[in-house]
């Protein structure tokens, strides 16, 4: 019988890899909470119409990449391809947005049926940060400042650069789209197939083309900056001033439009040169019309998202994995030959109760003492507690063995083992 394999592009994250993920998650959670953001969780499965109305029907995501199907009731459902639409749906449905300000964040798997490649998978994991009810450039700046603080916390500030742009209002983009369409129609024969297909339905999507010949053609196209309104320009100028005041360097990229239809005014991307073609590690912008688009009252909003897989790759490429990321254990508990495993398990439970936060593993499974001791050395723990046979009426003692090259061992009364372990763990450094 053949073995069942994982679905292509949906990858397992193995025990050797999860400490890196946990480290990034812990740093991220602590950071967003320090800015006053609260976590929200929502389903991975939504009505397909949610994403068609928010992302836009003439996008690669909706046209090609969504995992959509009809359930047994005939309802058209989709696995979420991104998080903002689901976050807005959940917040609006539960009354979190009307006349309120909200700072929310989320994390979890997203799904897109595209060609798997390094850092870009069919199931990928994303962290999103969203704010609602604030219309000024100060909250735009805060969202970007959070991402800049994350790069500092992860040691990646020198590996990324910030690109920003003002894409104006929907009316601004409509006027720009008309001018862009006129230009593109004059060069239709030179466009790639996808760009020709998008020409009449959504010409701004042509700006996202990755085909070099199309990009070369766009050099002479009209610029969106020629069409943006004075109000959005003033908003954008204030944002730039706020970033400068907080020493956040940026580059203005007039071709940056983002791939989702709901964005307006300010958009941004954090780019790296260390991952080849997969250069965007974090992106976001303002989306003031989305709540109304999904049936709620008009609500100003801004947010960002970053992919965990790509961030893990960047940390590896930049050599920024923490030295202690693979440290899993502090203490192993094992038994000498002839010791009842009940004593070993009971002592280990007592230690866990007395030493919360200390990572303790019991070496179950039996075997000769020397074999167990070898497992203790290979476990990565700093010290071992060895349970010896009870000496009769005297107080039982255990051996505390340092799991280093010297292997220093001391005999400790059971009543004093908690204090002895506390002292040892304070002085013995964790191993990488």
Automatic annotation (TrEMBL):
Main location: cytoplasm
This protein's UniProt keywords: Aminoacyl-tRNA synthetase, ATP-binding, Cytoplasm, Ligase, Nucleotide-binding, Protein biosynthesis
Gene Ontology terms, MF aspect: ATP binding; histidine-tRNA ligase activity
Alphabetized Pfam families for the sequence: tRNA-synt_His
Stretches assigned to the Aminoacyl-transfer RNA synthetases class-II family profile domain: 1-356
Annotated Gene Ontology cellular component terms: cytoplasm
UniProt GO BP: histidyl-tRNA aminoacylation
Keyword Ligase listed: yes
Alphabetized SUPFAM superfamilies for the sequence: Class II aaRS ABD-related, Class II aaRS and biotin synthetases
Family to which the UniProt record says this protein belongs: Belongs to the class-II aminoacyl-tRNA synthetase family.
Name of the protein this chain belongs to: Aminoacyl-transfer RNA synthetases class-II family profile domain-containing protein
Originating species: marine sediment metagenome
Lineage: unclassified sequences, metagenomes, ecological metagenomes
